[in-house]
Structure formats: C-alpha cells, structure tokens
Amino acid sequence: MSDTQSHTVADIAVADLNLAQARGELARLAQVLARANAAYHTQDAPDLSDADYDTLKQRNAAIEARFPALKRPDSPSEQIGAAPAEGFGKVTHRVAMLSLGNAFSDEDVVDFDAGVRKFLGAPGTLSYTAEPKIDGLSLSLRYENGALVTAATRGDGAVGEDVTANARMVADIPQTLTDAPEIIEVRGEVYMSHADFAALNARQAETSDKQFANPRNAAAGSLRQLDATITRARPLRFFAYAWGDLSAPLADTQMGAIRRLADLGFVTNALTTLCDGPDDMIAHYRQIETQRATLGYDIDGVVYKVNDLGLQRRLGFRSTTPRWAVAHKFPAELAWTRLDSIDIQVGRTGALSPVARLKPVTVGGVVVSNATLHNEDYIKGRGSKGEEIRGGKDIRVGDWVQVYRAGDVIPKIADVDLSKRPAGAQPYVFPQVCPQCGSEAIREEGDAVRRCTGGLICPAQAVEKLKHFVSRGAFDIEGLGAKQVEQFYTDGWVREPADIFTLRERFGNGLQQLKNREGWGDKSAANLFDAIDARREIPLHRLIFGLGIRHVGEQVSKLLATHFGTWEAFETALTQADIGAGAAWDDLMNIDGVGAVLAQSVITTLQQAAERASIDRLVAQLDVQAAARPTSDSPVAGKTVVFTGSLEKMTRAEAKARAESLGAKVAGSVSAKTDLLVAGPGAGSKAKKAAELGIETLDEDGWLTLIGDA
Ligand code: IVH
C-alpha cells in the first residue's frame, strides 16, 4: 500500500475535507465520542485519553463550523460531558456494604488478631474463618418470602445500582429460596472464570468488539449492561460469603452461616476453613497461595473473619470497615519498564506530586503508563522517616524501573536496575517553584510534600479545587464535570466555587454566550443552570467535603457533619477554636476518627482570611441542610456520655464504639454538657464532678441494662 492510500479520512485536515468526507467524519466522530462518553461514564474501561477526547471534540466542532448544514441531530457538541447515570435505578442498601481493611504481611495478621483481642479484652485464642478473596465485584441480593426481589451493586456502599434484571441471568444466583428467613440479603462476589474470560475475548475479537483487560473488568462490564440479554450471553458466576438485612439470624457462627447459605442453594467457596489464631491463619494463607494459579478464577488475597457472630457484633465497625475482618493481600504483580520522563502535577492543596511517565507495560493484565513517585525524598531513595528505601537507589529519567500494582491503587515503583542506567543520566532535580504559577514551593518541617504557596492565585490549585468541588461525593452537579469546570476556569467565568452559583445571574437571560460555545446548545445550557440550582440545597457533609480541605475525605466530612449538625455550629466552633488546646479543640479531638493533624487543617482553613472569604461567598449562595442526628431510637441517642473508672465486661474502646453506634456522643471529660456518667470501680475526680453537677451516674451493669445489652 502506498503512503497516500494508507491515509484515512480521519487524517485529512478539516480545511481539506470535501462535503462527503465531512459528512462521513461527523458520523464517525458522533459514534466515537458517544462510545467514549459511555465508557468514561461506566468507568469499566475508559477507551480514550482526555487529550484524545478533546482533540476529537475539537475536530468535530471545526467540521461543523465549516459545514454548518451537516451538523447532526446527535451532534457531540450538544452533549455535555458524560451521559448521566441513567438506565440503572438506585438502590439504598438497608445495611451498608462495607469494604475490608488490608493486611500485607504476616506481622499485619498478628497485629489484626491482637487488636481484636485487645478490643474484646479476650486473652485467649480466637477462631477465625479464612477464605479466598475473590477478585470480582460485590453484589447484594434481596429475597423477600423466598423470591429474589432486588440485586444491587455496591456503589458507594450506601447506594448502589439496581441490576436485578442482569442478576437473574446468572446461573449461580437462585431466583427462589425455600426455608429461608422472610427477608434475607445475600452478599457475595460476581466474577468470571479464566476459561470463560478467554472465550469471551476470543468472541469479542471475531466480532471486532473491544477486548477486556482482565476477568474483573469483563465481569463488571457484563453485569452493568443496560440490555440484560447481553448479560445472559456472558458467563458470570457468584460466590456467596456475607449477608445484609435479615429477618432471622442464619447461625451463631460465620462458618455456620456460610453452611446455611450453601443449604439455601448458594455457591460458597470450598476453600473456606476454620483457623485457630494467627499461625493457623497464615498457614492457610500460604496453602491458598500455592493453589492460586490453578483455581481457574482470580483471587487477590485471603479474608479472615472472627467466627463467633456474637463477637462480630460486639466488635462492630469503623467508619468503612468491620473490626472483625481483614483482607490479607497477595504480593503485587511486578514488571520492568523504562521511565521516559517525570512530570509534576499540582493538586488542590498545592502539593507538587511527581508522576513517572513510563513506556507502557502490562502488569497483572492492565497496561500501565504512569506511576506515582510520591515526593522528592522518594525519588532520592528515602522514606518518610528519612530511612533508605530501594537500598537508597535514586530514580532518574531513562532508568529501568520495576512497576507494581496492588489492587486498584495507582501503580508504584518498587525498584531500579542500576546496571541499565544510561550513561550521563542525572539525578532528578525537584522544582523549587510551582510549575503552574511560578510561586515559591516550600516544604514545611515534618512534611514530605513540597507545596505551592500560590494559594488561590495558583491556577492549578484553583482548577483542582473546582474539580473536587463538582466531584461525585461533593456537589456532583449534573453536566458540570472536570472538563467543564476547567473550560469555565480558563475562560475566566468561574474562579471559585461561589462563581458556579452566579453563572445564571451573569450569563442567564441571553444564554447566547454559553450556547455559542463549542459543546453547548440551548438545551444543555438551560439544563446546566437548572442542575446548578438543584444543588443550592445541599447536605452539610457534601458541603464540608466539597471545600476540599486537606485530610478531610468523605467519611470525615460525614463525621464532622453528624457531630456539628448545622453549618452555623461547625463554622462557629472552628472559628473560635485554638489549635492544640481549649474546649473547642477538645470537642474536635473527641470525635472518633478525628486526629490532631486533621483538626489543625480544618481550623487553619476556616481561619485563613482569603480562604474563609471564598467559603463565605459560597455559603451565601446555598441552603445548607442540617445533618440528620443518628436515627437511633436507643435511649442514649443524642446524649453525651463519659466513661470513667475500670470496666469489667468490656474494654473502654468497645464501650465507646458501642455507645457511638447507638447514637451517643462519648466525651473524655465531664462538663455541664454531659448527660450521663458510667463509672466503674476506681472512678475518681470525674465521678466527683458529675455528682457536683447533678449528672446521672450509672455503674457498668446499669449501663448495660439501659442499652439493652445486659
Ligand atoms: S467480606 C463487611 N469476603 O472484597 C465485609 N469480601 O475489599 C464484607 N471480597 O467489597 C466483605 N471476596 O467485594 C468478603 N470472601 C470475601 C470476599 C470479599 C471478595 C470483596 C468484596 C468487598 C471487598 C473488600
């Protein structure tokens, strides 16, 4: 084939296209971009890089500008970002679907067991189940009166997607149950076997359909099909290993419950074993590890669960993980490749993050072309405490590096091959100024990260803040994603979150300016303004998360919102708080899950003048909804409780966790705000102070009776 013949229409410059070619190109681009939107949205397999997506969108707009008559009814320029999550209904889980904490070494397993026994005050050996951790996606199946009524994905743990029609296509999932509790939610993992995965990809290749990177992506893509007949053609399987809502208990032990699930007709994993203590658990882990390659499906570790369900209940949960279980992960997969360059990204808190751009390499079924380099010390071969890592070897551009992936985390670099270091490779010089705004970038004492000092003037920080603000756990404004806020920022229309809410006021009536832009039409502009207005009313935790304060993630935002209740209470307390001391500080430190670093970060942000002014401008645009108090009907919900003296039936940690799970607030010291003191033997000054203040005091048994645990 000659050079000219190998060129396709896609390579012809817009200015050189004839009418027929332009029509063809518009049709092709509409299809490619719609597919990219869908792929991006489902996240199962984004098929275009952001840069490629933008290039195609610009080409489409340029062709439309040259041939306005050819503009298609389904023109990609009329579509704002990704399609909304339509198609699947939402299911609110009655019992949250949590994830698991991880253990990466034998030592971590010993620590896990020690932590459990400490919490329970149990000196002896505990028994645990050990079972493979299936690498698929979790699913919750609700049966009422023996009939499958809903199947939902995990989603964010609180709300998942309704995939009932699809789940009905999975042979391992019973449609009906006999002799089951009236209400039972069975949870487990949907996965695809190695053989079925290979056959599916072979079929996909024959029909020129996309290839799945690994069985997990294939399973996810197959389950999350709007057309359930496609799911039927994809051989999915299901292992049951847990449960949610139940009208009657399944058994007294984890092992018993798994047997009961098997009796009900579910497939449970045959490698599930009972272990006595950590040595036994680790031995079983090794055993499963040796079988890993021949199992015929992907697993990424072993899950240990406290066998006694009574103890599981006492252990309860941290914010997103149970205290009674842990996932012991297998070591990550590794691959060698060349480091082509090092880029510096500036995050929303100003952190300068070095990113390795790699010659693409497949690691555990996924193509990796970037890896995090964490910070400048890491590049130099030093860990967070100044200790040597990788034997002190630094990382240079041109080096051969060993890349690994553990689970879904961003790929990392494990090692450098000095024997392959190119002659003349220079140590990497970390920038001392922000590559985005030129401000000085400094490292504070004790901080591993160098940060841009530009604050609100740094465009990178501002844009990242805005992207975070519109992200899923924050304001999640339909039609306003990362791409759109970036565009608005570049145009100078939106500089800070508050500006989003004055867009209509500033551009409203004549939607002209917005609608003439590439990517926007009459309808999409009007929809956007409506979507923005719909978010003026916002739950407190979403607002707190949306502010993008360092260390304040979604879970912490929820904790803070529940603790303070209203924006006014939150804002007043933090404005008054002193770092490290005082009533407001103590109150913050008393929240389970809030530590000094986090508290300091929140206080600093709310007391920094420019930041604060920007936050106030935002809040003035909003109607912030108060956080619901824990909807517990327990007699201690909403009460402030203090424990003092020694407890005999439970540890202090357990008492605190249990009280909090019943909606009580546990404080460390007695004050006028205390509602109840629980005093064990040896109680001293706190009991005295409570007596002086006339605060109700109970002993441990009185407390257990009050909360119904006696
Ligand atoms: S138990 C409350 N058991 O791992 C804990 N999870 O990293 C309920 N997973 O979201 C989970 N195999 O999707 C459990 N044998 C197993 C598992 C398992 C795979 C998944 C599950 C969960 C994730 C947590």
Write up what this structure looks like.
This protein has five domains: 14-79 and 332-420, Nucleic acid-binding proteins (OB fold (Dihydrolipoamide Acetyltransferase, E2P)); 90-190 and 235-329, 2-Layer Sandwich (D-amino Acid Aminotransferase, Chain A, domain 1); 470-500 and 502-535, Orthogonal Bundle (DNA polymerase, domain 1); 539-625, 5' to 3' exonuclease, C-terminal subdomain (DNA polymerase, domain 1, Orthogonal Bundle); 640-706, 3-Layer(aba) Sandwich (Rossmann fold), CATH 3.40.50.10190. Residues 1-6 and 80-85 have low confidence and may be disordered. The longest helix is centred in the first third of the chain and has 24 residues, at 19-42. β12 and β13 (352-363) form a beta hairpin. The chain has a five-stranded mixed beta sheet. By secondary structure, it is α+β, with helices and mostly antiparallel strands. The protein is globular. The N and C termini lie far apart (85 Å). It is built from 27 helices and 24 strands. Bound molecules: 2-(butylsulfanyl)adenosine. 2-(butylsulfanyl)adenosine is lined by residues 98-100, 131, 133-134, 138, 154, 189, 241-242, 303, 322, 325, 327.
